[in-house]
Amino acid sequence: MTWRAALLLAAGALTLPLWPSPFVGVLVMTGGVLLLVLVDRLCAVPPAALTAEREGDRTVRLGGTATVALRLGNTSGRTLRAQVRDAWVPSAGASPDVPPQRIVTVAPDDTLVLPTRLTPTRRGDRPALTLTVRSYGPLRLAFRQRSGRPATPPWTLRVLPRFDSRRHLPEKLARLRIIDGTQVTRGRGQGTEFDTLREYVVGDDVRSIDWRASARQADVLVRTWRPERDRRLVCVLDTGRTSAVRVGDEPRLDTAIDAALLLTALAVRAGDRVDLLAADTAVRATMTGSGRPALLTRVVHALAPLQPALVETNFELIASEILRRQRQRSLVVLFTALEAGALGEGLLPVLPRLAARHRVVIAAVHDPVLTAMTTGTPARPGDAYAAAAGWRALAERDRVRTALTRHGVTVVDAPAGALAPRLADTYLRLKAQAQL
Amino acid sequence: MSAAARTVTPPAPRPAAARPGSAPKRRRRWHRLVIPLGLVATLITTTLVAQALDRPDADDPGYLSPVEAGEHGGSRLAEALTRRGGTVARETDVRAALLTARTGAPTTLFVPAPDLLRSETLSRLSRLPAGTRVVLVDPSVRVLHAAGLPVEQHGRRWATKVVGPQANGRPCPLDELRPVRRAAAQRQRYTSDTEIPLDLCFSAGLARLPGTVDTVLVGADDPFRNDRIGEHDNQALATALLGVHTRVVWLDLEGPEPPPPTPSSRPPVTDSSTEGPGSETTPADGTAQGRPSRPGDSSDDRRPADSDDGPAPNPLWGAFPLWFWAMLVQLALALLLAALWRARRLGPPAPEPLPVAVRSAETALGRARLYQRAGARGPAGRTLRTAALARLLPWLNLPAETPRDRVATAVAARTGGEPEQVEELLYGDDPATDQELLDLARSLDALTRAAAESPPEQTHGVTPTRTEPTEGEPR
């Protein structure tokens, strides 16, 4: 029953002084209202006679707005008057065009489209939870509502990472083209892979003259080299406890995802193969880059649902997974944090095995709070203690970095905003020096 | 209105939704057990406390008084006795009551609250004239000992039970109780502690001790109270018990009996005489002979006219017209409808697992607080000095093992200070107070800033960069 039934009964109570026998009046009016409620309820469209479907966007980039529409069909022969609540998780930022308080009307054998605009506040999969339909009778004295009727049509909106470092991509691609030799700006001869023979021009390195080819031709020919193609790049994301630390206003994992996306975009353009592995105590996501055109999209989709977990990362698992998957020598980029406890006990024991087979780059995000603790002029005794603790943390970090460097690992340690371009620079440098 | 099941499981195929879903289920199951049991426990406790509070005490004002018309009074019993043709003499003084009982024809001495009597008085009860009947209501162990009655208490019930007159399978030996069929008399039960046989009735809830003084113990006060006297054969029991003689002396004490005014006038009576009923009665002291009994005091003064009709109806009922109450009922029903309307929610709340969030530099900040709380000025100062040296030495192109004085000289030359001061600053004693530590931190900060800003005095080609292949800015 609804507020109307209660109001009807309360209004009837005001007529009681006029009744000859008030308590009989109470009985008559209560019975009458209950009878009306019962009749109204019987006239309401049963929820089982409704159908619900969804259509709309499957993916949206973080910060964008998606629209998912609910199609509510009325298969009964009566007009449906109903309140419809389509519940999404709170972080999906759902705002229905028709608020759930409003009563919508659907004619018999008709379909109503109820669009919902979603502006998600977090990356990952945002599911629709529950659809609730409250079907009113013609008098709106009573309603029918059953959980699970009509069944909630499942829908999951995948919120993709924002990929802010996209803006660095043109500059890095231009540098890649220079290295690649497609743009003659600084010359070639950087790589080790034979490209073509061309005529000697003044200024070429005489060591690159191909005498055998020159003997067959009238001209002097030089060999040109280009960087290797079809190298392998493995992005490894640590989703353990250190990735949950909020640096700036986003977790470390999001910064790592951003940098991994830039690296993937660059590597795809450079003709390299990109594999992906995300793990903490278990493997969270894997992807093998074979289909080249859609590789970036696939990486984005593989990375989008990753969430940090409050567990210690099992680097033993990560190393064995990499060694099992990658037979060839590849560039392994490990996104983690330079923390003495996590890396010293987990990574350093397995690093020799990994570094013997692959080229390892460790990408870590700075903590700006630590920098602020050590560089500011102390004003209170607490600041002096904080500076001491900060210096100690930095010293530990330097020790870890030294230990990693001893194994031939390149460490990229940068603030959150600069990690992606620095990592791209490292990749380009390694590529130019043919160290992949 | 819909009676649909409320347990809505989110149908979205989320693996994370399974874990939060199991915890509320267990909690609900836990509630399912605790709520009914707790409700029952609360009900039992409330009942017991209310029963204990509601039971009258012997020292309540008006308890079993012949002039008290309340539910714990005895006015109806007194009235019934008067109607039978007897006289009820209400005595509020013990000495007067004993005196009245001794004079004239054999009487019945009714003591509703024997616990209020002193031990000396109780021992004197056995010396009343032969044929006197003494009725004690629920006497305690102290009373039984003081009165020298060879009786033991034997089990007590929470509430009075309605029983027939027979005890231990034998009929009641008291002839006057023959018309009584069932009465609420079994609460405190009695048994004999010697081989003297007791006359037990009502499942040992009533005991008569034979002797010159006819002492009757009643374990329950229900047959005498105004509120229960009308039930079963309670009135018949009470009137038969008290009405063996036409004269009833009703000892109506308002509080514990005061000590005798002249302690030297009477030698203390020993309580050890177990032969109470058989001992010879002492002659009464004639000084109180002239005290008149007050039969007119009995029951007519304060008794309301219609005590038999039960409690009067609440006057509030008549204060308002009938439609007012009907309107209240209907408005309550409307409220009930509104509550039913609000009780059905439009779908369950939408749950979502929250993402884990760890604040940045949590460990470093925590360690700083630990340093401060422990007062670790020495380690903090050493860390600051080591860090400052680690920054200064590469700038000055000095190896790590440089002696102190050379470092101090080089730093002083770079920043323009005294070498002794610089050496004291870089290699001095540990700070003793927080202020010293703060000064040290400030001086080191100023020193490193000055060293970083001033140009290097020797223009080596070597720039102070790190040797390890590290990308990105060091910090």
Main attributes of the structure:
heterodimer; A: 436 residues; alpha/beta; Immunoglobulin-like; 4 domains; six-stranded mixed β-sheet; 12 helices; 27% strand; elongated; B: 475 residues; Rossmann fold; seven-stranded mixed β-sheet; two-stranded antiparallel ribbon; 13 helices; 37% helix; disordered N terminus; disordered C terminus
Structure description:
The complex is a heterodimer of chains A (436) and B (475). Chain A is built from twelve helices and 20 strands. Chain A has helices spanning 3-13, 22-43, 169-180, 211-216, 252-269, 295-303, 315-325, 340-347, 351-357, 368-375, 381-406, 419-432; strands at residues 50-56, 59-61, 66-74, 80-88, 94-96, 104-106, 111-118, 124-136, 143-144, 156-160, 193-199, 221-226, 232-238, 246-247, 250-251, 273-279, 283-288, 331-336, 359-365, 410-414. In chain A, the strands form five sheets. In chain A, strands 2, 4, 6, 8, 9 and 10 form a six-stranded mixed sheet that branches. In chain A, strand 14 (246-247) and strand 15 (250-251) form a beta hairpin. The longest helix of chain A is centred in the last third of the chain and has 26 residues, at 381-406. Chain A is elongated, with a radius of gyration of 33 Å. The model of chain A is unreliable at 183-189 (pLDDT under 50). Chain B has 475 residues and is of the alpha/beta class. Among the domains of chain B are: 75-256 and 293-307, Rossmann fold, CATH 3.40.50; 367-453, no CATH class. Chain B is built from 13 helices and ten strands. Chain B is elongated, with a radius of gyration of 48 Å. The chains are: A alpha/beta (436), B alpha/beta (475). Chain A: Residues 197-369 form the DUF58 domain. Chain A: InterPro entries: DUF58. Chain A: This is DUF58 domain-containing protein.
